[in-house]
Amino acid sequence: MNGKNNLALIKDYADYLRVEKGLRPLTCEAYLSDLRIFAEFLEGRNGLLLTASEGDVCALLGHLRNHGIESRSAARKLSCLRGFYKWLLLDRRIRHDPTVNIESPKAWKVLPKSLAEAEVAEMLERATLAASHPQAKATALRDRAILELLYAGGLRVSEVTALNVSDLALDAGRVQVRGKGDKERIVPLGRSALRALEQYLREGRPHLERISSVRRTRSGLNGGARLFLSLRGMPLTRQWLWRLVKMSNRSTSPHGLRHSCATHMVEHGADLRSVQMMLGHADISTTQVYTHLALGRLKAVHRKHHPRATRRGAAQVSDGSGPQPAGQETRGKDWP
């Protein structure tokens, strides 16, 4: 009986996330997956989601910790429960939020991993070389356009797979993107990405449509107006894009290229507000992490070029010239 009550409540919450909050299917499923974990945990204690106590939530966090779940993942699950019980409270189904006094598990701040500019350039040059071959296939043109787009626009992988041909405005040098919560934003593109997309639309995509037309007719399936198509004429999946990037560079991913885009922009002087708008971050605090990455480069430049960056005892020398006291040479330790 508990299971049925929990399932009914989860279904109501799913409708709320999808209809009222306007969250995308993948985001909804992530929330609901965490909620189901708590529901199953409660059923083992003969409990209900509607009557869960603060002790039940603490017990779940302890259970996750004992089973080796990282604090970052546990914090995400607690965040999901907070949203769920806030909804129940606003809907007047409960009178007390069991998560209100629970602190989020502390986690190390994990900075995004990004590629060096030379690594990105090498990866894109290989894709360009494959696409510029006299006998280049349509798939090579498509793959190059995808890689250029991921890096040039900092798009999420789900945003790339959801793009339609009509979202491109190549003459204006931009693309319209639908991000989290179906929020739309305009993303500018550079010349390399625009050239790759133009060539793909001119020489690659029509060929993919032609060779797949018979298969689509027989199966009744249609890729519609999606920008990037498979050999079967269907939209590409997130998993496929992940494999494409991994084959191009094993040390990164589609999200890694997004981080690389943001990091390189900040390193070249872009302001955080502009980067926030381009990436589609709802909160500027999400974008601020890139200042830490840029700071690492600033430290390296300081150590290399500042005349006193490598001499801890330099201030003891009256005129700043002449030999330095022995043992005062320390590299990389002077930055606070």
Write the topology of this structure.
Elements: H1 2-20, H2 25-43, H3 54-66, H4 71-90, H5 117-131, H6 138-153, H7 157-161, E1 168-169, E2 174-178, E3 184-188, H8 191-219, H9 238-248, H10 254-267, H11 272-279, H12 284-287, H13 289-305
Antiparallel strand pairs: 1-2, 2-3
Helix pairs in contact: 1-2, 2-4, 5-6, 6-8, 6-10, 10-13
What does this entry look like structurally?
- The protein is mostly helical and 336 residues long.
- α2 (25-43) packs across α4, α6 crosses α8 (191-219) and α10 (254-267) packs across α13.
- A hairpin with a 5-residue loop joins β2 (174-178) and β3 (184-188).
- Helix content is 57%, strand content 4%.
- 25% of the residues are buried.
- The protein has helices at 2-20, 25-43, 54-66, 71-90, 117-131, 138-153, 157-161, 191-219, 238-248, 254-267, 272-279, 284-287, 289-305, and strands spanning 168-169, 174-178, 184-188.
- Among the domains are: 2-90, Orthogonal Bundle (DNA polymerase, domain 1); 117-254, hpI Integrase, Chain A (Orthogonal Bundle), CATH 1.10.443.10.
- It has a 3-stranded antiparallel β-sheet.
- The chain has 13 helices and 3 strands; from the N terminus they run αααααααβββαααααα.
- The longest helix has 29 residues, at 191-219.
- The model is unreliable at 312-336 (pLDDT under 50).
